[in-house]
Amino acid sequence: MKKTTNPPEPTFEQALTELEGLIDALEKGEMTLEDSLAAFERGIGLTRRCQQSLEAAEQRVRILTDARPSAEPEPFDIHD
After folding, report:
1. Residue 46 in contact with residue 19, Cβ under 8 Å?
2. Which residues lie closer than 8 Å to 18 by C-beta, 6 or more apart?
3. What average pLDDT does the chain have?
4. pLDDT tier for residue 80 given thresholds of 50, 70 and 90
5. Rounded to whole angstroms, how far apart are CA atoms 19 and 12?
6. Is 12 buried (19+), middle (13-18) or exposed (0-12) by CB count in 10 A?
7. Mean pLDDT of 31-57
8. Where are the alpha helices (DSSP H) in the chain?
9. Computed from CA positions of residues 60, 62, 64, 69, in that sequence, does the dihedral angle turn out positive or negative?
10. Any idea which UniProt keywords this protein has (predicted)?
């Protein structure tokens, strides 16, 4: 029995490049409705991946620039 593995998560740069390609393809308006919906769904997933990467990077910057010697990761509201 063969075990299926999920492909690795794309890097931020890979996700952004793919997202830009999907947007270009959708804007041309030459895709079928089904293909457009699949591209839109993929784009939503890529957008979420990019947002997660940016949030993680922002948190790392906050930690690195915190003047407190005991600074630790803290949850933050992305809607600030």
Report:
1. yes
2. 10, 42, 46
3. 87
4. very low
5. 10
6. middle
7. 96
8. 12-28, 33-65
9. negative
10. Cytoplasm, Exonuclease, Hydrolase, Nuclease
- Can you give the pTM of this predicted structure? 0.71
Query: Helix 12-28 and helix 33-65: axis angle, to 10°?
Result: 150
Backbone conformation region of residue 30, classed left if phi is above 0, alpha if psi is from -120 to 50, else beta: alpha
3-state secondary structure of 8: coil
Q: Which domains does the chain have, with CATH numbers?
A: 12-64 (1.10.287.1040)
- Non-local (6+) Cβ contacts of 55 within 8 A are 76, 78
Buried b (16+ CB within 10 A) or exposed e, 56-66: eeeeeeeeeee
pLDDT grade for 30, boundaries at 50, 70 and 90:
very high
